[in-house]
Amino acid sequence: MTSQSELDDSRLWTPSKTRIDQSLMQVFLRHVAQNVDPKVSDWSSLYSWSTDSYADFWRELSFFVDIKFSRPPSSICAPSVTMRETRWFEGARLNFAENILPKPDSREVMVAIAEGVPVERWTGLRLWNDVAQCAAALRLLGVGENDRVAGVLINGPEAVICMLATASLGAIWSSCSPDFGARGIADRLQQIEPKVVFATDSYSYGGKIVKNLQQTIDALKDLADDPRVIAVDHFHRGRDDFAAFLASSKFPRNADQPQQIDFVPRGFQDPQYILFSSGTTGLPKCIVHGVGGTLLQHKKELMLHSDLRPNDTLFYFTTCGWMMWNWMVSALACGARIVVFDGAPGFPDVSRLWNICRDERVTHFGTSPKFISACMQAKDLITGDSQGVPELRTVLSTGSPLLPAHFEWIYKKFPDVHLASISGGTDIISCFMLGNPLLPVYAGEIQAPGLGMAIEGWNDHAVPVVGEKAELVCVKPFVSMPVYFWKDLDGTRYKKAYFTAYDGRDVWRHGDFVEFTERGGVVVYGRSDATLNPGGVRIGTAELYRAVETLPFVTDSVAIGQQVDDDTRVVLFVKLAAGNAWNPELSNVIKKTIRESLTPRHVPAVILPVSDIPYTRSGKKVEIAVTQVIHGEDVPNQDALANPESLHEYRQLRGHLKV
Asked: 531-657, what's its fold?
């Protein structure tokens, strides 16, 4: 049993009593205690109530976060045979865009920053009228309920405007990033057959102009019905095809009064978004998320778990191909301002994003472990700190496990921020576990499960365990489960993706390898399908990264299991920090560090230097692709990778790994 003193050793931050008392989570806790269940007195009892009485929780939450229904639900959670067949808020009618759009007034609600173009700002009135124009123009093209509208767009204002216009009509929005390439775009959009596609003409990244309109047109050429493609020229905003498209609505430009928007009422589980899996192991899955579940879950996570308030500012570094973009836009529904940014995060240096936080008075900044690692390596380049970014209250991180060294760096720079590591995914368009403003922050640990998310760690015998590495499962339904997979008419693919791991037991297996700690937090060790098994011992790849990436001469790493006879040996590839040259002594230092901080079983059999580590476009390491290359297998859908050229080096290293 771990002692309390050992548990407290890694505590990095504790919220003040004032901060706790003023947090929206505490306000909600008091609301529940006074109006619903007097036994709720602290975080633990609040969480238990939210999962034991989950129908009551989601109902009460919908009141607290002010979901606007045009017709209230007749029931909150209808009885069902299985989790995936659960029906939520039956009879309710609402519109996603009506809930998201800020009031059409003079308050600034969105700032658009991109390489090579001036900063632009949107008031509530300007955003409202742009959405009204776009919706009217889409309606003239025949777009209506359940039609698909897609964006191959940078993270700019047009993406926000087009999504909200689409949602106002009851149509379904889907987006991907222009850097996916023609194959990546085709693999996604050809499956969902959009009626209209908004496409970036060109953009700047790292100081270089990238033209990509033609690749979008090429990606759509095999569709049975040609979609209308509307080009967006971010360098000539207001004088491009998108501006002409808006003008086709016949609404007046720059109107000083809000224009009419006819919000189409939708059912709670009607489709709102189609998101795509990464596609690193085959054709991307088309995951359909509902109107109400997405809205309610996002407002819970933003308001309660992130303590995002009216007049706060959220800046999340993301692309339109990652679910964090959808999450970020929902901040508008909380009364917050958003900063949409497109460009290379390290151009001209990694101070760029911190300077935006300073200049735009950002209160909530979202990033990834990869970016924090780059900041740690840059050292002298960082100009942002607790003095330089005085408004910053919360730093959010996701994409891959946040390592203890990342936690420690953030708290050296920003001693009084709430660092919230969050984890969930495209599958649920939200989080299973995330930050909590009522609780301390411990190095390397996600603070708590999300309210209403009945998650557990199951061992190999399907028994919940604490203090042991286990599979992440969710044992009760929740509102942001996918409503279905696109064209999966009988639900077979949906069931296979999440519900077939435990011989008929009706639980969601998420595919993460985790550990629930004695204090209620969660440590993520990586994806289950990337777990290493030397000698039958399960090792999460993040365990190795936690040890290795604390070394000053290592900037990144990726670990795989290589099949040798009837066993697996661990192979570790390391990317050295600038100014370091590989030599056998470095290998010995790495092995010694791993042996002392973990166990002899964790020590890699082989360690090799590489110049780059492959990542998906949403910042996840791709252990599976490296494993396939090392075993001489084809890597499907390399367009899903941010840097597919990096795999060439691993092919060349296969000769060093022959047994």
From this structure: GMP Synthetase; Chain A, domain 3 (3.30.300)
419-428: buried (b, 16+ CB within 10 Å) or exposed (e) per residue? bbbbbbbbbb
> pLDDT-based confidence at 444, cuts 50/70/90?
very high
Candidates 341, 450, 431, 322; CA nearest to 43 is 450
Q: In the chain, what are the domain boundaries?
A: 94-446, 531-657
Q: Which helix (H) or strand (E) holds 78?
A: strand 75-78
DSSP-derived secondary structure letter, 363:
S
Same fold, 94-446 and 531-657: no
* pLDDT in the model for residue 537: 73
How many Å from the N-terminal Cα to the C-terminal Cα in the chain? 41
C-alpha count within 13 angstroms, C-beta hemisphere, residue 569:
12
464 Cβ partners below 8 Å, 6+ apart?
A: 456, 457, 458, 470
How many helices (H) and strands (E) are present in the chain, helices listed first?
21, 32
| 425: alpha, beta or left? (left if phi > 0; alpha if psi -120 to 50) | left
* pLDDT, averaged across the chain: 92
CA atoms within 13 A on the CB side of 233: 10
* CATH architecture classification, 94-446: 3-Layer(aba) Sandwich (3.40)
The single-letter code of the amino acid at 429 is: I
Question: Is residue 385 predicted with pLDDT exceeding 60?
Answer: no
pLDDT per residue over 223-266, tens digit each?
Answer: 878 899 999 999 988 889 999 999 998 887 667 899 999 999 99
Q: What pLDDT, on a 0 to 100 scale, did the predictor assign at position 609? A: 94
Looking from the CA of 73 toward its CB, the CA atoms found within 13 Å total 20
Q: Sheet of 313-316: strands edge to edge?
A: 120-123, 108-114, 337-342, 313-316, 364-367, 394-397, 418-421
Q: How confident is the model over 314-336, as a mean pLDDT?
A: 96
Cα–Cα distances in angstroms (integers) from residue 460 to residues 515, 521, 559, in the given order: 13, 21, 23
Q: What is the pTM of this model?
A: 0.89
Q: Which DSSP helix (H) or strand (E) runs through 513?
A: strand 508-516
Amino acid 5: pLDDT:
38
Token pair belonging to 24:
């929206």
Average pLDDT over residues 543-560: 90
Q: How far apart are CA 76 and CA 53, in angstroms?
A: 12
